[in-house]
Amino acid sequence: MIKLLRIEFKKIRNYKIFWILISLYFLFLSVGLLMAEFMINNIIDDVNRHTPIPLPHVTIYFFPWIWQNIAFFATIRYVLIFPAIVIIILITNEFTFKTIRQNVITGMSKLEFLLSKLFLILLISIIMTFFLLIGTLILGLSNTSDISFSLILDKSSFIFGFFITILAFQIFGLFFGFLLRNTGLSIALFTLYVFIVEPILYFFLKSPLVFKNGISTYLPVNAILRVTEYPAIPVLKTVMGLNLQESVTWSACAIPLLYSAAMVGFVYFIMEKRDL
Fold it and tell me: What is the pLDDT of residues 55-88, one digit of tens each?
């Protein structure tokens, strides 16, 4: 594992696009999380101008609910797209510059090559999860009174949910990169699917005019994002009637992990059958 990660690090060490995109991800993630409460309360103020019964402002940075709130806002598709695009670029560059063929010629097996990318995705996911963990602890400790160790740990399963989500989303990007092998085409089709195609499919399959079913729940991007489905904001329950999550369940994590395993297996199958 260490040997394969060293090879990957040599490839990205001087690759400016990688570091720029990763830096933008951390920047947007940090700004978005810090501004989340302000933006939500601005929306509430706009709603209150048109309703006879005013809605109260919300606070999202207190334990234990901060774990769920931060995990939710960190896993919206507009934020997750950045690390996934980074993976797509790294994968497609291997084919564009023929480095995958060079690696195989110099003794690396196709399985080792695939594992090197998966280890990189795992490492990126761990670093991002650690970053979110530290940020959540700082915000929570700064905004919570009567802190106890049990209070801090309560709902902390949502940080694991974030790890599963970002891991699966990057593997989804890896799948597109290996499948299409062209940077521009892979990014374009991946973005199109995430933001347009699957949302349309979701609402079409969910429509009672089609037939009553739960298929829409199991669409890949939707399944990944449903690990942390809603933020812990009481107004969502009182006004919209939503049943808020109590914790991240193993069943919610199992579907993205199964998708990830299937995609990795399919990529390996393609690598074995296709000419590099």
Answer: 777 788 889 889 988 998 899 888 899 999 999 9
Residue 266: what residue type?
Answer: F
Model-wide pTM > 0.85 = yes
How far apart, in whole angstroms, are the C-alpha atoms of residue 218 and residue 226? Answer: 9
| Amino acid identity at 217 | T
CB 228 within 8 A of CB 248: yes
Q: What is the pLDDT of residues 205-246, one digit of tens each?
A: 877 666 666 777 889 999 999 998 877 776 665 555 556 777
Range of the domain at 190: 2-273
Q: Which two tokens stand for residue 111?
A: 């399985």
Distances (CA, A) of 44 to 49, 195, 220, 233: 9, 26, 32, 12
Max alpha carbon distance in the chain (Å)?
Answer: 72
Domain count for the chain, please give it.
1
Q: Which residue has the tokens 């990944």?
A: 224
- Between CA 128 and CA 169 the distance in angstroms is 13
DSSP letter at 54 equals P
Give me the amino acid identity at 126. I
